[in-house]
Amino acid sequence: MSLKGTVLAIDFTRSTGLQSALEPWGPDTFRTHFAPEAGEDAVVTFKIESGKVTGVMMKPLSPLADFSFDYQHLDFVPVS
Fold it and tell me: What stretches of the chain adopt beta strand conformation (E)?
């Protein structure tokens, strides 16, 4: 995750095309707009504890998404 100007973005640097601005989708939740050939759009939810991000979870936006986009198995945590 990074801030590009005033826009929050996600960039999987080792996966071509998996870059997207994050569009607000609800409390602590955003959605992606990946290039169609890159992957299924996802819902990205920040885990917040005591006002700090403690993790990030993802899941496919569509319940019809191909099973190979198993974002829900990813468990991101902040690094120093």
Answer: 2-4, 7-11, 19-21, 23-26, 29-31, 42-49, 52-60, 75-76
